[in-house]
Amino acid sequence: MPRLPKYDPLDVPASKEDINRLRDELEVAPVTVLGHYIDFDEKSEKRMVDAIALWDELGEEVLAWTMADNSEVQLSKPQLEDILVAARIARGTRALALHQRAKQFKAQGGTLRDLQDWRDETPSKTPTQDGKH
Prior knowledge:
By secondary structure, the protein is α+β, with helices and mostly antiparallel strands.
């Protein structure tokens, strides 16, 4: 009797909702900018903007800023401003690429396994010691 192939639950077509969900997840993943691995979703961006706006009232030269990996880094106001600008550029660039990739998936079709591969190849994980993902 012939054997049936092993069932792979990820070998099913990915729905539009599956594609959009992954795209949205990857879009708000931490980014590495100027050597810092930071959270940069809307809430994190607001924290940065607020800290910069209130900096002078705090009377501090540097603030301890928590990175995406929960390490703390001492940052000056100009450093945080530079990180904010670089993070906005990185997030925007990544969002554009993610939306283009999602559009391709929707047009060409793909499986949940393909989406898993996309997640695995997207640099959104904690960087290694040399700064690479």
